Amino acid sequence: MPMRRAIRAAWCSVFIGIVVLLLKTAAWWITGSIALYSDALESIINVAAAFAALVALHYASKPADSDHPYGHHKAEYFSAVIEGVLIVLAALSIMREAYLGFLNPTPIDAPVEGMALNALATIINLLWARYLITRGRRWSSPAVTADGRHLMADVVTSIGVLAGLALVPLTGFLLLDPLLAALVSLNVLWTGWQVMKESVGGLMDAAPAPETLERIRQLISENAGGAQEAHDLRTRHAGRMTFIEFHLVVPSDMTVEQAHEICDKVESALREEMEEAMISIHVEPAHKAKQQGVLVL
Questions:
Q1: Domain span including residue 7
Q2: Is the pLDDT of residue 128 over 90?
Q3: Which of these three, 169, 203, 237, is where a domain ends?
């Protein structure tokens, strides 16, 4: 269910991205503002990123097969990396246009009309970005979350552009337009770096957040009654899938069936909390205890 919702959200991102692109292109067309041109240029990248996320989500939704026995979940991280790269390219493009604006400052035509169109596009992006970030985290979807952060970076850019456009006719300082665009591009560049950093961490099997790991330890401790301890706990994320593996120490005289029942109970609790998890438990006799790790309550 989360994957189907993520794919629908990706389709909506493509449609909304095209609408926002048209609004920002119209704003640049009637004003001739370099900052608005840069903002529209970033929206083109938004649409391309939305398509990349859509393709990645479709691929990640494929079930496990003989060539990919652990599934295709990491495909989402590739999309997030691509989005991070596109954000960085957008920031560099804005810097270039800001530099050209410094070299040849020009007055802005129809600033009120242009600001109105850009403000409408910004509001649409803001609402949709907040939705994507919130839902992406809930669905454990790196692609959806990265898409939301990408759009939020675009919102910051647009706010800076609007501030510049509002002040230029009031102050007559034409260099203010490219100056603000250059400052905003630095924020966009930082956002792109953060998106790529998190995505590369997922591709490199980085551990989940400390609070997630602590919750896993707590669930094992509370639901492994009859066992003695759990050690060598290792976890990683791959898109929406959480991989969990550990050794479970049980009394030496416990039957295989009893140990299996404990494992089933622990797996059920973990899957109820994580929604989608792949769990591997290695059962060991009492003399294998390390007196460390997760103590069973």
A1: 2-203
A2: yes
A3: 203
